[in-house]
Amino acid sequence: MPVYLRLDMLTLLQNDAVSKFVQASRQDLADGLLQEAAIIEKFLPPLLSATDIDEALCQAIAALPEAAQKSHGQIFKIFYQEIDRSAVDTNLVKQRLNTLLSQK
To answer: Are 40 and 11 contacting, i.e. CB atoms less than 8 angstroms apart?
Structure first.
């Protein structure tokens, strides 16, 4: 597994721990983890912008027959064949796809 994926997973775990520390009123522990996460994130490759995601999604939609152009599964399949999952925020991809499909 590439190092950047491990770092990305570590920041996700830290963010989860931060929310639990905040719920437990342990802001001191949460602040420490937030500082660590900020340092680790400097070493991660940048994520694609919403504009780049939109372009890739539009290309994926255009590659499908018209009857399948609203199928999230088929669109995601084509999208992720071209774009590595580690290069995007998957929640943003879902949000952008919903926005694009609602505009059609």
So the answer is: yes
Report d(CA 12, CA 23) in Å as an integer: 17
Quick check: helix, strand or coil at residue 92? helix
The CA distances from residue 20 to 6, 17, 24, 37, 63, in Å, are: 21, 5, 6, 15, 43
* 99 token code pair: 């926005």
Query: What is the residue-level pLDDT of the chain in tens, covering all 104 positions?
Result: 667 677 878 888 888 999 999 999 999 999 999 999 888 888 877 889 999 999 999 999 999 998 888 999 999 999 999 998 888 888 899 999 999 999 87
List all residues 6 or more positions away from 34 whose beta carbon is below 8 Å from its beta carbon.
14, 18
CA distance 9 to 77: 23
Whether the model clears a pTM of 0.70, i.e. scores above it, the answer is no
